[in-house]
Amino acid sequence: AFLDLHGPSEIKGVWKKSITLPCAYVPVENLVQQTLAWTVAHDKGSGTIFRRDDSGDHVLLSEYRGRVSIPKDAPGNVSLLILSLEISDRGTYTCQVTWRDSNNSLIAKEITTRLEVVKVAATKPVIRGGERGLALPAGASTSLSCEAGGSPPISYRWFRSGPAGRAELLSSGAELAWPSLRPSDSGTYFCEARNR
Length: 196
Description:
It holds the Pfam family Ig_3. Residues 17-112, 125-196 form the Ig-like domain. The structure is a single chain. With 196 residues, this protein is an all-beta fold. It has 2 domains: 5-118, Immunoglobulin-like (Sandwich); 126-195, Sandwich (Immunoglobulin-like), CATH 2.60.40. It has no helices and 15 strands. It has strands spanning 10-14, 19-21, 32-42, 45-53, 56-59, 68-69, 80-82, 91-100, 106-118, 126-128, 142-147, 155-161, 167-172, 175-178, 189-194. It has a 6-stranded mixed β-sheet, with no helix packed on it. The radius of gyration is 25 Å and the shape is elongated. The mean pLDDT is 93.
């Protein structure tokens, strides 16, 4: 029986977002997974993040508690999901699996993946109008929402074109809402997205 773990040697994650560190094998008959461990080496030292054995799943490093998981019912998929990446999560991660064969001997394999955590600038935002479009009768209610990509947190500001090309700041927040439109609300609106 031939067993191998598969996963990338390097992966980039985005600060404050989640990332999956892939580690997988094709299950082989007569080979039973005994233990699975994910370890890390980074600035804060090294240690075992996660261990799965007969007694269950254990998260051993406190800074990963509540932030890591591994698929439960996916034979061969032992990838590590990390939520809400911190810059300090960058480092070298090792996926180690041991199997027991029909003669009760153990086989062990491991792969390592280097994780880099990056910050991504806010993208140019897009504005979405309500379902009924951008031409509405007075008295109707509507809203515009602003969406941008990039590393959270992203903050938004809404402006309206004023006289002589000046921009008037209306509000902050991703949504601009009108409970009851007036003719004077007609105009050109724009939105700014920024992050750190």
